[in-house]
UniProtKB/TrEMBL annotation, chains A, B:
This is Phosphoserine aminotransferase. Keywords: Amino-acid biosynthesis, Aminotransferase, Cytoplasm, Pyridoxal phosphate, Pyridoxine biosynthesis, Serine biosynthesis, Transferase. The keyword Iron-sulfur does not apply. Homodimer. NCBIfam families: PRK05355.1. Its main location: cytoplasm. It comes from Flavobacterium agrisoli. The keyword Iron-sulfur does not apply. It is an enzyme of class 2 (transferase). It is found in: Cytoplasm.
Length: 356, 356
């Protein structure tokens, strides 16, 4: 039976990524060798890394604009400390927007490096909305925000205009919508939502902002060293990079980010419309900040949970329970989720309405 | 045509690891989902992580001895800085043995944290031997060594007796020979030699040595935080951990480390005997320090290189050229390399002797 995988991450990827990466494990590029046993310095893998780095910049519209793309390891959580290590001056100051659990985790690490100003926070309201109308200190070394809050189902629709470097954690919505990516100085994203399997982290950096904070940075935490080594300062996570390249190529073949965004909007509209129409459900996040990636919703009457849970499981839906800090349900509808799978969930919601 | 993969890492793994991991990408545990799309918090993956961590301690004979096994990301190069961050006191001192390129890279990172004493070095002789007869300062916070030097083909046959914590980078020979692993306080190893594909790093820690150096450690670099989170502080490199578990199970099924060591000794003996017997070849490393994992050797007459290179390539051998800092050849004969493949190389060496 076909599964409809609503997992928040690691999550659904295109079927052709599964098929091609499984094949590469048995025989990569007709070399007689597995992708798991080839040297990262082999011609075939260097080509994978080069193509993946170039395709990232191409998809984001950042070619020829002074940006570099890196495939690192350690997850977005490692970037929480790499960003201040590389950008915050000794006795400097960083500014952060506190819009959710991951933003808060990033703030915690920044505080180890110096003054960390929280420009606004929605923590008191359990992060149900994106704070707005805040001011960014003009003397901050950078401003950090989280574009999409996976756990709470909120998403920044616009980004502040500021003269300080703009850093964004896009782990859960990169490659999902067409925005002006050149407004950012650093974009980072754990692969395991829209880009590939867990195990690699994309970091896109405007090169000119590096080397200005005067700190001595350990080699593995130094963006400049990774750029100089063309993202091969040490052995990269070969398989995860390869599977990410397959996913990036799938996005390109689909028509790039604008085409993917159109489908994402249709999926989100289908699901939010049902949540708003069906009296048995209500959305969990502030309407204007609703995420097009993670749709959080609740039953108006929690007593229907047992029946609803049985119904969606029988329909082949998996990964729907909400995060413990929100409760209810979270339907993660990343790029690779087909609209047909969203329709299956909507059908179950309507069937529940009829059954009650 | 069957390939005989002598790559230094990433490198050959057991065929069943390729077969089973490719299958898990198409359908993991008959779940209808790919190993690449399941949540790391799912019951099935938590079981993988738990089993892998337990099997490491079982294979190393460290069960019930106060050790914890972690599967982290970032590669052994990230451990170069995590070790001093976790063990070196403010104004403390660390002691390092400089036996090769990677030992030297570890020393470079330690120097950022405090006084770093190099107890001995073979750098002046291009690391052709393992230094011996050195003294470890009794007031060092720890002593760090590299058990096997992948590039130069040398291997420590014994480890110093010392009262300071003993830290060892075993990236290229872990699980290859039966030694008393309880003499070490930290063992770390990038997966991509004997344990699995690139993308995860094994760290085995005697828990009692942590929390004593008084530093504030960033979360992702703090071993204690990773232990507390049972190696899931953040999303782990799911696929690399799974493929590592498959490799560890293969070692266990073979009879564990003692059985694997016996085969490794036979392979190394076969190849070194030919290098010593055949007048066209000579070993690159000091005889008593020769590695059983990376066999470095040279042609006595470099003019034969063209003929030899053509012959081994025709025999299906790949990954044989030596590292640029040694030249000649390097045959990496990790656990998964069958003795039949070593015989193929020996046959080519003998055929060269007849052809000249």
């Amino acid at each position: 039976m076909k599964k409809h995988n609503y997992s928040a991450g690691p999550c659904i990827l295109p079927q052709e990524v599964f098929d091609k990466s499984a094949q590469a494990i048995l025989d990569f590029n007709n070399s007689g060798l597995s992708i798991l046993e080839i040297s990262h310095r082999s011609k075939d893998f260097v080509a994978v890394m080069d193509e993946a780095r170039a395709l990232v910049l191409n998809l984001l519209g950042l070619e020829g604009k002074g940006y570099q793309a890196l495939f690192l390891a350690g997850g977005a959580s490692l970037e929480f400390l790499m960003v201040p290590y590389n950008l915050m001056k000794e006795n400097g100051k960083a500014a952060y927007l506190d819009s959710g659990t991951w933003a808060s985790a990033a703030i915690k690490e920044a505080k180890l490096f110096g003054e960390t100003v929280i420009v606004a926070s929605s923590k008191e309201d359990n992060y149900t909305y994106i704070p707005k109308g805040y001011e960014i200190p003009a003397d901050a070394d950078y401003f950090h925000c989280t574009s999409n809050n996976t756990i709470f189902g909120t998403q920044m629709k616009t980004f502040p205009k500021t003269n300080v470097p703009l850093v964004c954690d896009m782990s859960s919505d990169i490659f999902s919508r067409d925005i002006d990516f050149s407004q950012f100085d650093i974009i980072y994203a754990g692969a395991q939502k829209n880009m590939g399997p867990a195990g690699t982290t994309l970091v896109v950096i405007k090169e000119e902002i590096l080397g200005k904070n005067g700190r001595t940075i350990p080699s593995m935490l130094d963006y400049a060293k990774h750029i100089k080594a063309e993202s091969m300062f040490n052995t990269p996570p070969v398989f995860s990079v390869y599977a990410s390249l397959l996913t990036l190529k799938w996005i390109k073949e689909k028509g790039g980010i604008p085409a993917v965004e159109k489908l994402n909007n249709a999926k989100a509209e289908l699901l939010y419309n049902e949540i708003d129409r069906n009296p048995l459900f209500k959305g969990a996040a502030n309407v204007e900040d609703r995420s097009n990636m993670n749709v959080t919703f609740l039953l108006t009457n929690p007593e229907h949970a047992e029946t609803f849970d049985k119904m969606w499981k029988e329909a082949g839906v998996s990964g729907l329970p909400g995060h413990r800090s929100v409760g209810g349900y979270r339907a993660s509808i990343y790029n690779a989720m087909p609209i047909e799978s969203v329709q299956v969930l909507v059908d179950v919601m309507q069937a529940l309405e009829k059954a009650i």
